[in-house]
């Protein structure tokens, strides 16, 4: 049902470098790109983008907002979470089983946007 998600940024070049390196770990590549935004996808469904807000105001992370990215193995969850932190993201919850069958790790990107990477089952 979700087509794409956008995350606000105040520094498009910095966000682009972060997500180029992070999404490369799962084979995602840049898709659409314009002066205010860049998106990445795997070609198999939804995309994630970063964008400078249209209204010209500073981008701020929403309290309670989170984007979750599904992986097909726990090892990929661990590797993606570790790469996010290696690139300068901050830990919001180490990888582990939150409840039976739901394995997840949480982090914030360089702009403070909260993301979850998870594997069901």
Q: Beta-strand percentage?
A: 35-45%
C-alpha geometry: globular
Sheet with most strands: strand arrangement: 1-4-3-2
Mean pLDDT: 95
Elements, N to C (H/E): EHEEEEHEEE
Rg, Å, rounded: 14 Å
What is the makeup of the main sheet?
A: 4 strands, mixed
Q: How far from one another are the termini?
A: 21 Å
Feature tags:
121 residues, four-stranded mixed sheet, globular, single chain, 40% strand, alpha/beta
Account of the 3D structure:
This protein is of the alpha/beta class and 121 residues long. The chain is built from two helices and eight strands, in the order βαββββαβββ. It has helices at 12-24, 74-86, and strands at residues 4-8, 29-33, 37-41, 47-51, 67-70, 90-99, 102-108, 114-120.
Helix-strand blueprint:
Elements (H helix, E strand, L loop, with lengths): L3 E5 L3 H13 L4 E5 L3 E5 L5 E5 L15 E4 L3 H13 L3 E10 L2 E7 L5 E7 L1
Parallel strand pairs: 1-4, 5-8
Antiparallel strand pairs: 2-3, 3-4, 6-7, 7-8
Quick description:
The chain is an alpha/beta fold and 121 residues long. The chain contains 2 helices and 8 strands, in the order βαββββαβββ.
